[in-house]
Backbone:
């Protein structure tokens, strides 16, 4: 099957959701690299920051730690810390 | 008004020297008076790419140390009116020169009546880079569609802006549209999205570059060279003309023809 797709050309491969080449790997790796080059925080430091932020939030609301997202993104040359923290219920008033 | 442009990249081997030589020659072909300055002290190469290595008497360090006059060190290119090379010293190290020396040197070149001073920056971000950006009015960043080159370009863009130069322009070199087409090379739009600087030129990967380096004749002197044509267009954009960037689709097969027909191919230009 795969052979047929690649023989038909990249457009058909893409339409049928076949593996796009290695450029997507390159792009993903680059995005990660550039952010981390600029922020200059080790993965361990990022993890500590995440834990500390969670601790503060947990004082007020109960959060779903497994569904939580925490990442650094870069858009238009600016880096943003993007986080999505699902709240289970409010614990304190 | 005279302008000094630094050609830089961070990573080595992406085509800074080829770019400097071709842009210098292309600007001279357009009637401008141009000095190309090799700032890679200790590892000069611009002389070889331009085919002027046998005509060097004095170099940049001689000028800075006052051992000769600027005019004595400038090697005039006989193939085109108005092109001059200021070679780097080969037997000295890069600490022989400082940023203030380079500022003065660039000013002297402008006072000599140069319309453009092109500085071929060495790889890296140390002394040679600092010297190269010191006298520059703006920067052209050369990169290739590879993770390592793009990463270094990002670092250099930050350093150029930290040196209070205006927003740099990007040249994407060694572009292989057949690989882009099959999804095995980062395309120019991806690079622009990642680096967030305007594109000033796209140069295809072509054996012309090796042949012209073998001969010491920059590709812009060869009317049939696609690489030479790309650099002539970049020189036009540097002079402020609005010249579109073609897509370099090598493949004339069914799918690329179809894509072109659907209007999916051309790359938008920004000057």
Residues:
């Amino acid at each position: 099957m795969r052979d047929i797709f690649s023989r038909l050309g990249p457009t058909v491969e893409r339409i049928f959701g076949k593996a796009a080449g290695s450029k997507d790997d390159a792009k993903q790796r680059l995005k990660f690299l550039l952010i981390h080059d600029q922020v200059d925080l080790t993965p361990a430091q990022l993890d500590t920051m995440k834990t500390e932020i969670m601790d503060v939030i947990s004082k007020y609301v109960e959060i779903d730690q497994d569904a939580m997202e925490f990442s650094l993104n870069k858009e238009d040359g600016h880096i943003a810390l993007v986080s999505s923290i699902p709240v289970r219920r409010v614990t304190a008033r | 008004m005279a302008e000094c442009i630094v050609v830089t990249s961070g990573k080595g081997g992406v085509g800074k020297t080829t770019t400097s030589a071709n842009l210098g020659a292309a600007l001279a072909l357009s009637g401008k008076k141009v000095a190309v300055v090799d700032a890679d002290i200790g590892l000069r190469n611009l002389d070889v790419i331009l085919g002027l290595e046998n005509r060097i008497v004095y170099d940049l360090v001689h000028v800075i140390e006052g051992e000769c006059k600027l005019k004595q060190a400038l090697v005039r290119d006989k193939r085109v009116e108005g092109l001059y090379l200021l070679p780097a010293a080969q037997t000295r190290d890069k600490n022989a020169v400082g940023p203030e020396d380079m500022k003065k040197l660039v000013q002297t070149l402008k006072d000599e009546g140069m319309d453009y001073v092109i500085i071929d920056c060495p790889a890296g971000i140390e002394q040679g880079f600092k010297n190269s950006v010191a006298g520059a009015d703006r920067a052209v960043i050369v990169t290739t569609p590879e993770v390592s080159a793009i990463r270094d370009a990002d670092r250099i863009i930050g350093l150029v802006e930290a040196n209070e130069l205006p927003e740099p322009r990007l040249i994407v070199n060694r572009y292989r549209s057949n690989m882009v087409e099959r999804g095995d090379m980062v395309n120019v739009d991806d690079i622009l999205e990642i680096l967030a600087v305007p594109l000033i030129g796209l140069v295809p990967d072509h054996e012309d570059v090796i042949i012209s380096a073998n001969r010491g004749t920059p590709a812009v002197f060869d009317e049939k060279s696609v690489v030479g044509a790309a650099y002539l267009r970049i020189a036009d954009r540097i002079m402020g003309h609005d010249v579109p960037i073609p897509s370099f689709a090598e493949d004339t097969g069914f799918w690329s023809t179809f894509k072109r027909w659907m209007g999916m191919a051309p790359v938008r230009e920004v000057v």
